[in-house]
Every structure is written in structure tokens, then in C-alpha cells.
Amino acid sequence: MTTLVLTVVGDDRAGLVSAVADIVDSHGGNWENSELAELAGAFAGIVQVSIAPDRADDLRAALESLAGTLTVTVHAGAAEPGVASARAVTFDVVGNDRAGIVREVSAALSGHGASIERMSTQTTDAAMAGGRLFEATITATVPADVAIDDLVAELERLASEIQVDVALADEA
């Protein structure tokens, strides 16, 4: 099987996921993983599909029929990283919203060789204090030779500097 990664973007409306799923299914593809969201009236997502290698080009061509409704870009999936060489950590970031939080946290992770596997962010009204509250949950893959304690210490130092709370939620 071949792995394809689809990125989809368009104006939000009912039936977008169904349209993509119908095309994937009609070409013998298997919808494996996805993250889909509506943000500010736009629909965006990323979808991992497995398909027989001899059917991949037909699927790519069929997805082009969505032009005008959705922009779909097809990428070849990469091989899965070795499980033994890395560990996953999940942590939460919470603080008053301001520009640069994602940049600072992602730079700290990158500086330790960690790769963001999954990240979900949102801003909400801070009911008691006024203003906006930034919240993120981030799962990162950390190389086996990086001490988790060192990464946590760096994130705690950064948290103090940019005035957010960073808490380790899970270590796999």
C-alpha cells in the first residue's frame, strides 16, 4: 500500500468531508487518520489515506474534480519513524494570549531535536480577568538521547519568560 497525505482547504459548507471521502472510497482508498477543522469560516484539514500503488494516480486525478469547492493537495507519505529511537511527550500550554507563544515553544522543542507530532491551539475569552486566554496541547516526538528532564526544564524556563504555564501531561 502507498500512503498519501491530502491537505484540503476551502470555504466551509456542508458536505465537504463527504465529497472527499466518496472519492477516496470509490478509488479503493482507506481513510486512516485526519485532523479537520472550521476556522473563521474556512474549512481546512489533513488526511492520511492508504491506497494500492496502481490506483494512486487515478485518486489524485479524481480529487482535482473538487477544484472550485476545495483545494486538495496530495503529498506522498513518508515512512514512519523508528519507534525505538524516539519517545512521545504531551504537554499543555496556558496563558494570556500574545503574539509569539507558538514560535517560542516550537523553537524550544526544535532546539532539543523534538518534532511536533500533533498540536491543537485555541484562544478563548478569559472570563474572570478579561482579555484572551491561549491554550495548546502539543505532542512531540523526542529523540531517545534527549533527557526529558532537560526538555521540561527548558520549557519551564521559557514558561516563566513568556508568562505561560507549561505542564507535562503525558510521557509515552
Describe the structure.
The chain has 172 residues and is of the alpha+beta class. The protein folds into two domains: 2-76, Alpha-Beta Plaits (2-Layer Sandwich), CATH 3.30.70.260; 86-171, Alpha-Beta Plaits (2-Layer Sandwich). It has four helices and eight strands, in the order βαββαββαββαβ. Strand 2 (30-39) and strand 3 form a beta hairpin. Helix 3 (101-111) runs antiparallel to helix 4 (148-162). The protein is flat, with a radius of gyration of 19 Å. The two termini are 28 Å apart. Residues 5-77, 90-169 form the ACT domain. This is Amino acid-binding ACT protein.
Topology at a glance:
Layout: E1 2-11, H1 16-26, E2 30-39, E3 42-51, H2 56-63, E4 71-76, E5 86-96, H3 101-111, E6 115-125, E7 132-143, H4 148-162, E8 164-171
Antiparallel strand pairs: 1-3, 1-4, 2-3, 5-7, 5-8, 6-7
